[in-house]
């Protein structure tokens, strides 16, 4: 496990590193990083089977007869099948009672079976055949010829239309009450994987922070962060680096940028471990920060505290966002979503996807409960000047929120530590 002491010591060593050519990281100068994922425990078959059982219980409650999942996080969550989407249908059917079934092209069956963790009912179709008739047949064999068929939110139109034509007596409805009712609440095994993903991203920040150089471009910094997370064992890596005025645009700008003395460097990065995501933002100043940068950075840090304190079990998720906006308005920012201030939601759900329901956003009435996971990122953006965003993720327990990563204490020590 990567400790706070290791982070501080490593960051101090990395900060001493210099690069011979501004903007270009020489491999010899980069800190040595090695995978830290040897101790992870993948989701077990027993847990996946329990998820299917939970989904079936929810289907009984909501009177939905079956649900259909396309390749993606939901399919992986319930079955362990790692597949991709194309114009050729591969899907999983979870009936309200009985075993799951898979429909896939004939020539893909051996590969699909390699990825399966349980179940044995695989229906195949040839290129000249209608795959949706296979789905209707599978449903009929489970006694489902009429009733309600739930589709998860990301199912594509041609799939929905094909199912409608192949099984006209089935009413297509949203499967969100089922999939969200399972995926929104993370188990101990899921939380452990998310902690590891966050550990990787935070350690990578420490490596990159020590290598920032005047003249670097966003691409230079993104490459450093991408390589650092990969070296530590992260997958599904994404990075974003914004400098100066561009940091006032939460999702970036195409304008040319390079690091200059006294300039804001805002980074938003993450990775995955066994499909489970991290999402951490850090804001640095290259060189000496001025008084305004210090002030805004500290306000954002306090905004995180306000959100954290408001996130109590049983509280509507939207109240967390309300608390942050009320605090910022007292400090002269806003009001509400107006700039300068916080122009986006305070946070989003996270798990196998970087953005999942529910959100810390105005009007969200879903009550906070143990197992829910969120980002906490109440940035402040000043158009034409700069923006500051600090983002750390948290998970709900019976007694309140806990950090995956603890936010930094000051702009002078801007990395933070593990939760």
TrEMBL record:
Keyword Transport: no
Record flagged with keyword Protein biosynthesis: no
EC category: hydrolase
One Pfam family this sequence matches: Creatinase_N
Signal peptide from the UniProt entry: 1-25
Keywords tagged on the record: Dipeptidase, Hydrolase, Protease, Signal
GO molecular function, one term: proline dipeptidase activity
SUPFAM superfamilies assigned: Creatinase/aminopeptidase, Creatinase/prolidase N-terminal domain
Domain Peptidase M24: 193-398
EC number: 3.4.13.9
Record domain Creatinase N-terminal: where: 51-184
Source species, domain of life: Bacteria
Name of the protein: Xaa-Pro dipeptidase
């Amino acid at each position: 496990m990567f400790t706070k002491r290791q982070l501080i010591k490593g960051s101090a060593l990395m900060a001493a590193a210099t690069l011979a050519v501004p903007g270009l990281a020489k491999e010899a100068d980069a800190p040595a990083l090695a995978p830290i994922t040897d101790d992870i425990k993948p989701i077990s078959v027993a847990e996946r089977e329990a998820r299917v059982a939970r989904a079936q219980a929810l289907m009984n409650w909501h009177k939905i007869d079956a649900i259909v999942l396309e390749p993606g996080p939901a399919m992986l969550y319930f079955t362990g099948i790692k597949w991709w989407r194309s114009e050729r249908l591969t899907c999983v059917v979870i009936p309200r009672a009985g075993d799951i079934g898979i429909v896939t092209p004939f020539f893909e069956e051996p590969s699909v079976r390699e990825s399966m963790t349980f179940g044995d009912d695989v229906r195949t179709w040839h290129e000249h055949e209608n795959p949706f008739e296979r789905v209707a047949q599978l449903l009929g064999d489970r006694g489902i010829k009429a009733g309600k068929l739930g589709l998860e939110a990301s199912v594509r139109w041609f799939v929905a239309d094909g199912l409608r034509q192949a099984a006209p007596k089935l009413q297509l409805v949203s499967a969100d009450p089922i999939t969200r009712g399972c995926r929104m609440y993370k188990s101990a095994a899921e939380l452990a994987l998310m902690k590891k993903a966050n550990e990787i991203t935070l350690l990578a920040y420490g490596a990159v922070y020590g290598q920032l150089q005047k003249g670097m471009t966003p691409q230079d910094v993104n490459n450093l962060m991408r390589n650092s997370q990969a070296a530590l064992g992260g997958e599904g890596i994404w990075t974003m680096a914004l400098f100066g005025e561009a940091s006032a645009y939460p999702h970036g700008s195409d304008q040319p940028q390079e690091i200059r003395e006294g300039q804001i460097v805002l980074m938003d990065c993450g990775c995955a471990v066994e499909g489970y995501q991290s999402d951490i933002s850090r804001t640095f100043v290259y060189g000496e920060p001025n008084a305004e940068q210090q002030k805004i950075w500290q306000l954002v840090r306090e905004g995180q505290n306000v959100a954290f304190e408001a996130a109590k079990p049983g509280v509507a998720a939207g109240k967390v966002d309300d608390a942050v906006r009320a605090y910022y308005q007292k400090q002269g920012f806003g009001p509400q979503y107006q700039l300068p201030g916080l122009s986006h939601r305070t946070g989003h759900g996270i798990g196998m996807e970087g953005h999942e329901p529910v959100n810390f956003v105005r009007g969200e009435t879903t009550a906070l409960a143990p197992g829910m996971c969120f980002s906490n990122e109440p940035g402040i953006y000043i158009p034409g000047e700069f923006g500051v965003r600090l983002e750390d993720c948290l998970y709900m327990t019976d007694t309140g929120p806990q950090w995956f990563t603890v936010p930094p204490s000051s702009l002078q020590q801007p990395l933070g530590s593990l939760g």
